[in-house]
Amino acid sequence: MTGVRPLAVTLGDPAGIGPDIAICAWRERKELSLPPFVAVGPADALKARAHRLGIEVPIEAVLRHDAGTALFARALPVLDVPTARPVVPGTPDAANAQAVIQCIDRAVAAVEDGEAAAIVTCPISKSVLQSAGFRHPGHTEYLAALAEQRRPGASIRPVMMLAGPDLRVVPLTIHIPLARVPAAISAPLIIETARITAAALAADFGIPRPRIAVTGLNPHAGESGTLGREEVEIIEPALRALAAEGLCVTGPHSADALFHPLARKTYDAVIAMYHDQALIPLKTIAFDEGVNVTLGLPFVRTSPDHGTAFDIAGTGRARHQSLVAALRLAAEIVPCRARAASDKGAR
């Protein structure tokens, strides 16, 4: 295991359940055959959380991520990023926002510099960060901005995918009010999102000819324009353009009939028009196993598909299954992407 680069696991908002699930995942590392990882966050808060949870976890500080692999069998390696004020489980503190941001910075630097294989991010609180001056809509956009800093002149378009064992969904629009969704949908956005999704399915998931199903916006996919014109005027032209490029896309489909078991056998991923249209079926089918995967980044990033859960931080009630799934998926994507890049270079 010494030659294996570890995953960098940012603890997110340390007042949330990030420390809880990282501790629980490490405790079950052998039974679950988890890949080695280094926690990135405040070591003192991590130790205090383990004590509060009554879990015996040896925690050892490292100065570099790649030093964590050899430690992982006997201790939870942590790259220490101290907070400005002591962490109180369940009580987020804007004074600690800079430490949360610094954790993300350190993890990105580690994966870009080859110390870590991929990034797995525990949940942050966007409202807490933004109250401290954070100007990005969320984790994903900040990761893209950090990647662009390393690549002057590059324009990186991240795409959010939620992946479970039996379903992958991509919301076309994400954290915007439902009333703004129709105006936000456009043919160029659909085309760009589908291209990025298809490329990621091939490179990261090893699907040589991905099949993408696209939902309609309106009930019954607009029913030929009688229940709305977005399908006829925006979605269908976009799908025709994608098909002309050689992509395997179908739709617009009525979303209410697209997620049952037989339908799921006909595609590799769904592009849905808005947040809940995508996430409700995913969380219904695979609540504890859903993983947030950011497509379009130059490095691999996954995340548990849940929030900070401040109300249960430090109580022992946090479930770590989604973090386990995020760790496993990140470890699977890394070699898959490397093989795809090697094959592309050989052609």
**Helix and strand succession?**
EHEHEHEHEHHEEHHEHEHEHEEH
Query: What order do the strands of the largest sheet run in, or round the barrel if closed?
Result: 3-4-2-1-5-12-11-6-7-10-8-9
Unreliably modeled segments: none
Spatial extent as radius of gyration: 21 Å
Helix content: 25-40%
End-to-end separation in angstroms reads 32 Å
Number of separate helices: 12
**What's the rounded overall pLDDT mean?**
94
Structural class: alpha/beta
Percent in strands: 15-25%
Given the C-alpha coordinates, what overall shape results? globular
Query: How would a textbook summarize the main sheet?
Result: 12 strands, mixed
Number of strands: 12
Please give a structural write-up.
The protein is built from twelve helices and twelve strands. It is of the alpha/beta class. Strands 3-4-2-1-5-12-11-6-7-10-8-9 form a twelve-stranded mixed sheet, with helices on both faces. Helix 9 links the parallel strand 8 and strand 9.
